[in-house]
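Can't paste images in this forum, so I'm doing it all in text. The chain is below; anyone willing to post the predicted structure tokens underneath?
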Amino acid sequence: MIWLFIVLAGVSVFLIAALTIGREARRLDALAPRAVYQLEQAADFVAMSLPESTQARLTMEELEKLLVLHMNWLHAKGLLPDKAVDHRQDQETAVVVSDDSLIGFLLSKVEDLGIDLVDDVDIVSIAQAHLAYFDAIGAIGPLASDTDI
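Text version of the structure:
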């Protein structure tokens, strides 16, 4: 009689554990992975990725301002959430962001910031390095296919 109770208890524990793990796995699968963006870390990553000529013309404060502008631009496009919370993967339409529109936006804002020594090539290098940082922390989606464009 006691053996039957032990077997039933073991089976019950296994079923409860299996159902709980299955439920949590399904819940976590529906959530987007959380990528943590840190401005100082991003600025260091981008600065190390830039060519020496761009590094010589740009201060870290100016670089951080450009990165913040890039983040604000992403927010305006709907690609940056207001709050860092778990969010279900429910985006139905593809959001395509072209490098040309980003670089044009940054070039238009460079004069407002008072950054005089930066040219077009520098902005392109900064944008590419910043996107590489997003990729490194897992915050970038797949490249758009020809049908998305």
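The chain has two domains: 1-31, 34-83+96-140. DSSP finds six helices and no strands in the chain.
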